[in-house]
Structure formats: C-alpha cells, structure tokens
Amino acid sequence: MVRLFEKIKGAARRKGKAPENNRPCSFPFHVLQQATNNFDKELVIGVGGFGDVYMGVLKCGTKVAVKRKKMASWQGQKEFRAEIDMLARLKDPNLVDLIGYCDEENEMILVYEYMENGTLKSHLYGSDKPSLNWPERLEACVGAARGLHYLHTSSEKGIIHRDVKSENILLGENLCAQIADFGLSKDGPELNETHVITQVKGTPGYLDPEYYDTLQLTQKSDVYSFGVVLLEVLCGRPAIDLKLPKDKVNLARWVTGMLKNDQLEQIVDQKIVGTISPHSLMIFCNIVLKCLAENRVERPSMEGVLRDLEQELEYFHGSISSAGLSAESSDDESYHDASSRLVRPGEGKVLTRSLAIKAYKRAANMPHMIPLPRRRAGQWPGRIKSRVATT
Given CB 3.0 to 4.6 Å as the disulfide criterion, which of 32, 127, 157, 283 pairs with 122? Predict the structure, then answer.
C-alpha cells in the first residue's frame, strides 16, 4: 500500500496537486475515465445510494474502486466532502483506504483501494461469490468490530458511522474486513453531552429504535446496527426481505419466532449447519441480544462487542476438531438446550428459556424493524419516506 501511495503521490505532484500529508489525491476526470474505460457498465462492481462503483486500473497498473455519484442520488456535496474529510484523518487496517477523489466538471467521484473479495453481504447471500465458512464469518465480524471500535475511539468525541450494514463491510486480502461508506458519518457528542440530535438517516432494518424515535444519535446506534449484521452472518439472509412470506420478512422478528417454537437450529444458514456447536451458537446469540437491546444503555460499547467476539473466535479455534460438531459439545447439548441458556442484555446470569424469549421479543419486535407493521393503510410508508433516507 505504501508503494501504491508513493506512485499516486508522485503522479499528483507531476500534475501540480501534491497531497498534504495523508490527504487523498485530486484526480483529473480524464484519468478516471481512462481507468474505467469511460465508465463502462461492464466494470460496475457495486451499486449504492451515492452511485455506481466501477473497477478501474490506473496507468501505474494499480486496481482501484471508483465510486461515481449518480444524478438521481439524494446525497450531495455535503456527504461527498464529509467522506473525504473523514477518511483523510482516519487510518486503520479495518477501515477502507480512500486514495483520491475528483470534483471537476460537476463530477463527484471517490477512488478507493480495490477490495478483491467484495462485500461481506456478497459472501452471505444474493451473489455467486463463494460462501464464507463459520470461522471466516467470525473473523469478518471481529475485523468489522475493530474498525467500528476505532471509529468510536479515534478522537475525543469519536465518530458515528450511521449506516452499518453488511453491504458496507468490504473484504480484502485474506478476507480482512474493512468498514466502508462514510458519507453519513458524524462526529459523536460533546464530552458533556450523551447524544447528537440529528435527522434520521440510514437503512431501514438496521436503524436503532431510540435514534428513530427520538432523533438522538449515539455510538450505541452503530452497536444496534452491527447486531443486525451479526444476524445476517448467522442466518445468511437479508435484514429485510420482502420476497419472503410475511412472517419471515423481518430477520430479527423471524429469529424470535423460531426461538419461541424451539426451532433455533432452523435460523442457522444451511451452508454452515453442522460447523457450529450449540454452545458457540448460544455465545453468539447472546452477543446479538445485547447489541439489539431496545434501551441503548443496555447495549455494550463496541469495545465490549469486540471483546466478546474475540473470545468467541478464540473459543471456536480452541474447541473445533475434525470430528465436527459433537467434538465441541462434550455433553451432546442440543440447540434446544442452548436456547434455554441465553443471557438477558445488561446482565451476566443465565436465564430460563421463557425469559430469554421475552428478551428476544423486547430486542427484535420493534416497529422500526418491521417493514409491514400492523397499522392502518397508508400510515407507515409516509413516515419512512419523510424521516428515513435510505442508501
């Protein structure tokens, strides 16, 4: 990566626009046109709220990801500049590298390090990319948690991502997870404040219920969204899927129903069934439960989430053997038994199964996460449209 930046900085100096310290380079529009074969649709590798992402190759031979704003995007100059400024002051192995940008000829283009393995989402569902096995999924969760922990602690106020989802977690070399897409990010609250009052933006299905209802944004809002990502990782399906039957549309609500009906094993992605012991599943579900707590004070910090995930990964590597599931579970514990030992958010004691179900309901059965709630016709869509900016 150092060699890459040296090449790009050298090119920038020859064009008379040397970057200051780690600030991204300013690319002429024609350079990015050439790198992407005039933004050839065949080179599109991703589509988002801001615009299409193209795979490009610079003259020096370096592959890059080029994100070009589309005309219809609701995001504008403010989000564009926010991402440039944000990434210019952040450097961490678990955050995507912004190489440069272009803002000439009314264009808004961002140029990133090319991530060969695409998004975490693409390795879970909805694409022909190879599916991740369970330890690879755990590694990705740990990497993403490290990136978010760095964001939250990188300055006095910290930074809130505000759009954490599997599509915004990229996988690089050796499947190292990196947080991406900082257009909606905001600085955290002042030291004497507990939250930031701001318009609700993000992706339905991932939004913190307190943020949605009160406009109060905190780092715990990212923790909640990350909890939904953890469910995607475990279940191998989207947070919201309108193509499914009504009772399965919302991922968290569906998981709650499965737990209530002693069908915990059915929530696990079929591609990884048999590779997770009931004990590991219990640990992972406990982490999810805490992240999805309705009240933000009951959610852990990202430091706590990271610690728990690292312990889960360590436990898995220390317990798994070629014999498979039974080798890790010495007492032949069943998924049903594991579901009876979930932990209430904010407490460290074992719960009965019935109380665990109530905790799941409290964490998952929230209106903001249900795209088709029980309502009078016409109420909900207007509220979504007026208050939530999707990406």
Answer: 127
